[in-house]
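Thread: Modeling a multi-component assembly for a lab meeting

Hi all, long-time lurker, first post. My supervisor asked me to bring a structural picture of a complex we are working on to next week's group meeting, and I have zero experience with this. I have the sequence lines for every component (478 residues in total). Could someone generate the structure of the whole assembly? Inputs are pasted exactly as I received them:
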Amino acid sequence: KIEAAKSPLSISDTPNTFEEITTYNNFYEFGTGKEDPAANAAALTTDPWSITIDGMVDKPGTYDLADVLSGQPLEERIYRFRCVEAWSMVVPWIGFQLSGLLNRVGVQPGAKYVAFETLVRPEEMFGQKSPILEWPYREGLRLDEAMHPLTILATGLYGEEMPKQNGAPIRLVVPWKYGFKSIKSIVKISLTDSMPQTTWNMLQPSEYGFYSNVNPTVDHPRWSQASERRVGAGLFAGRQDTLMFNGYEEQVASLYAGQDLSKDF
Amino acid sequence: MPAKTCPRISEVESLNQLFRRLPTWAVYLAGVLPFLWIVWLAVTGGLGADPVKAIELRLGELGLQFLIGGLVITPLRWFGLNLMKFRRAVGLVAFFYIAMHLSAWVVLDMGLRWSEMANDLVKRWYIIIGMAGFAAMIPLAVTSNNASVKRLGAAAWRRLHKLTYVAVLAGAVHYVVLVKAWPVEPLLYLGAAILLLAARAWKARARFLPVSA
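Re: Modeling a multi-component assembly
Sure thing. I ran the full set together rather than chain by chain. Output:
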């Protein structure tokens, strides 16, 4: 069991079950089916693990995971999780604010973006043997998004170490953005002054924008984002309305003041 | 040619004899079993964390499988295997699964949100294409009885039932268009559909060309 403090940033919804959260995953490194990651992720070696932090930082280097975690206060954050495919869950993550790590390595004044990369290890992540996405999986945030208190690096859920299919040993969670922004099994964090390339945007820029904020008024070109199905709600539960910024509007809307969100989707 | 040097023919013939004895209700029975299996899994919680999507996907895939199965019957006959008497049953089972797939979308997935569905019906290509495929199957299901064959005349009936090609192509494209990225399975269905239709086109063309060409 991981000890973690409660957080005022948690929502009061009942979380999905551990079973649901760990058997219904998109993690194409382990296959494209929702149950593939649970079936195939056991092969992943997560210890030892290190993260390379580079770019516009004062203390670049390759840090052992224990070093990355040291001094960062772990909290339980019960967040809504909204997939771009219009399903959602509520997940009790355990993690610490990304800002804590970034402050520790020292972000240089010119830095504007944070880029992340997932491990590439095809012999353990068999999905990487097919070119369905361009590996490594890449994601990125604007620096102010990365420094926001809601943005965490998660190392566990439900009091357990992060299950491999959920992005062990350490993953990003950005609750107001579609799930694919919350990159898993991170091995590299780079501070840059230009907008980094991101995997789904590289594949289909018209469908997956850099921001990818949850927004019921901006549809995916092929499907509506107005509503969502809460996984685990039951066969006949139907749908619920999708909330602006996934319900975190009050906390994050100011980040995008003056931006046209239908263009910066 | 002595029969001994041509064992394939006689094997096909014995298969034909076997199938002649098989009643068509066996196909309906075999067709409905996967449905009952899905219902069983849904009731016992065997469909994973998101049973709604699993139901929708399985029903749609079964519909596609039976549609493609129906398209295989004619090419098989080119090689002497005659399954024609099962074709109506295969087609009707396909229609049943597509209708159930659509119902699952309307009731379970969309939760009867009619305005959102109406929106999808005019805006979303995969919904439009899928719905077109279903619409193409309705006249086929309605006329899948001997009385209709008689009333329409065999030639007109056969022409009408070429709508199957529209249905299977629409179904396969619908699957490819709705997924993210390019997973293999939807492409396999589309490939099979295109192959089976291309075979017919090739055969039809061959009929009009001199053999020596």
